[in-house]
Amino acid sequence: MDNGDSLRPLRHSAAHIMAEAVLDLFPGTKFGIGPAIENGFYYDFLLPRPATPEDFPAIENRMREIIRGKFPFKHSTQSVAEARENFKEQPFKLELIDAIAKGELGLHGEAQAKPTDEVSIYQHDTFTDLCAGPHVHNTAEVPADAFKLMQVAGAYWRGSENNPMLTRIYGTAWQTKKELDEYLWRLEEAKKRDHRKIGKELGLFYFSDDIGPGLPLFAPKGEIVRHLMEDYVREAQTRYGYQHVWTGHMVKEELYKKSGHYDNYSDVMFPPMVDEDIVLRLKPMNCPSHMTLYNEMGLHSYRELPLRFAEFATLYRYEKRGELSGLTRVRALTQDDCHVFCTEEQIESEFTRALNLIRQVLNAYQFQDYRVRLSLRGGEGKFVADDEKWDKATAALKAALDANNVDYFVAEGEAAFYGPKADFIARDALGRDWQLSTIQVDFIQPARLGCEYIAEDGSTKTPVLIHRAVTGSTERFLGVLIEHLAGAFPLWLAPVQIQLIPIADRHNAYAFEVQKKLQAQGFRVEVDTRSERMNAKIRDAQLQKIPYMLVVGDKEAEAGAVSVRLRTNEDLKAMPLEQFSAMAKRLVDDKSMELK
Q1: Which residue among the candidates 337, 423, 442, 528 is catalytic per the annotation?
Q2: CATH architecture for the domain at 5-190
Q3: Which residue among 290, 317, 476, 567 is the active-site one?
Q4: pTM of the predicted structure, to 2 decimals
Q5: How confident is the model at residue 4, as a pLDDT?
Q6: With 80 as the cut, is the pLDDT of residue 112 above it?
Q7: What's the CA gap between 62 and 43, in Å, rounded?
Q8: Is 422 exposed, middle or buried (0-12, 13-18, 19+ CB in 10 A)?
Q9: Catalytic residue among 339, 353, 484, 537
């Protein structure tokens, strides 16, 4: 299945075909733009009447008629004057023509270097559009059974709330019906796996209007999972030689001006708090605080390096309300952050150390399918201007990737404002990509904040700073993990690992005896003493994704045994309690995803 650029001509062509169908069915429509996007396409319209999903069958049928017509997509250029005449009834196209002519806009929406007196046109059947392509050769190359209109939304023209609100119709298009069906299945499965839905059903976390948007509330079960996740990384990185620090929740605004964050990051900082002559900010990142701590600890020798400061810090970012999304985009996030102060010669070994830790953790969570993106500065964006340091940092990061035989792809313009980074893009069970871990090389900030060390020759030098996060933020990683696993946490991570189910009230005493023995071994165990029937208790435990249900009755009490059922409904039959606890302990110690 191809989900990349090779499908763009097909999807762009589908957008034009849909626009023709809409114009036929909604006479008087004014149309905006219709690009290909990930998994599909859209087109923006100013319609004479509102469109709803009930209109989709008629639009799709008209699209299929156009597809069967096998109309060629013909490319031409027109003078600005000619284009203005041809699109005189289309005000949005006239606006685009003027912007292109002045050099304010390219045909794909990009900035254009110089004015032009020509524009690019594509035409098929009765539909003509201002467009730079690409397209398929003719309409019949868009499979009639491999597209579907998906939803209607509102969109301001050119993204400005000062402009008219247009109707945006989204669609998806694929090379085959099989690929379309697979995509639609993934969408339905994603709805079932939505971490917001599962999180509430399992009693993990909630959002409340009384608290505010983007600020999750974690219930006891959710806090258990958070604690276990953070504790696992804390223990692992301690073994890898990282030291844990704590640097608070607020920082003087002046520090962010020194580090460069104020100029490059202030749009996602919460508003300032003024304390007489001091302006404070809620902390949106840790690096300036860790560099300040490095300085306050006194002058360092090369013998002390590398110094590895790790912190599970709650950070606060003023994300736009419309971009918040459950746990995957919040305003309060807890990051497993680390900053390594090292010499240039130590970059490769420290990268290797961080890489090995990331690989261990991602493997434990069953994210073995991941890619590495080398995010570079590119030509545009908010980046500190220091070509020499950027070149050194980029060369050092590439060398570290190559030394570790890491396959990577390059993405221009995706770097941090202070340096390049290696981002780990993991693929979940539904084939969706998520950026999780990152390793960044920074030659810029340490000098801005006056970080120094005494080199072996007695000279004063500036350390290199390596930024590293394993799971990124606890909240986002948990949201991704819930959807990846459909809420079925491995035994070591499940908030309730074992549910004891006594068959009758007279078996309650033995159930509590078993609970006590298992709790003494560190297991999280609950006993269901409700008056419900056994099968109902098993079903409820399975719905709560509890890994094990231990059914106990007369035979089990007499033999010191438990009857073991899995949340998958598999019956492992009766076994001695000691045998079960040994099996479960091994699975926890191994961080296994299995239950037997």
Answers
A1: 337
A2: 2-Layer Sandwich (3.30)
A3: 317
A4: 0.83
A5: 54
A6: no
A7: 16
A8: buried
A9: 339
How far apart CA 595 and CA 587 sit, in angstroms, is 7
Task: Give the separation between CA 154 and CA 164, rounded to whole angstroms.
Answer: 10
Question: Which of 11, 62, 421, 476 is an active site residue?
Answer: 421
- Catalytic position from the list 221, 467, 476, 567: 467
Across the range 518-532, mean pLDDT stands at 96
Compute φ and ψ for 522, nearest 5 degrees. Answer: 95, 5
CA distance 339 to 363: 23
The pLDDT tens digits of the residues spanning 302-326 come to 999 999 999 998 999 999 988 999 9
The DSSP secondary structure of 54-96, one letter per residue, reads GGHHHHHHHHHHHHHTT-B-EEEEEEHHHHHHHTTT-HHHHHH
339 flagged as catalytic: yes
The pLDDT score that the predictor gives to residue 104 is 80
From the list 76, 60, 54, the residue with the least C-alpha distance to 135 is 76
CA torsion sign for 469, 472, 473, 478 is: negative
Q: Which of 55, 125, 287, 515 is catalytic?
A: 287
Model confidence at 1: pLDDT above 60: no
287 is catalytic: yes
Q: Any idea how long the chain is? A: 596
Find residue 526's DSSP bridge partners: 499
- 147 bridge partner residues: 173
Domain 223-245+283-485 coded CATH 3.40.50.10440: no
| Residue 258 annotated as catalytic | no
- pLDDT band at residue 389, thresholds of 50, 70 and 90? confident
Which neighbouring-strand residues pair with 423?
Answer: 373, 438
111 has pLDDT over 80 = no
Q: Which residue in 335, 346, 445, 515 is the catalytic one?
A: 335
Strands 127-130 and 464-473: unpaired
DSSP 25-36: HSTT-EE----E
Distance CA 49, CA 29 (A): 9
Q: 227, 231, 200: which is closest to 216 by C-alpha?
A: 200
Query: Is residue 467 flagged as an active site residue?
Result: yes
Farthest CA pair distance, the chain: 95
CATH class assigned to 498-589: alpha beta
Token pair recorded at residue 160: 């400005």
Judged against a pLDDT cut of 60, whether residue 416 lies above it is answered with yes
Shared fold status for 5-190 and 223-245+283-485: no
Measured between alpha carbons, how far apart are the two ends of the chain, in Å?
34
Buried b (16+ CB within 10 A) or exposed e, 49-73: eebeeebbeebbebbbebbeeebeb
64 is catalytic: no
The region that residue 450 occupies, defined by phi over 0 for left and psi between -120 and 50 for alpha, beta otherwise, is: left
Would you give the DSSP letter of residue 266?
G
Listed by start position, the domains of the chain span: 5-190, 223-245+283-485, 498-589
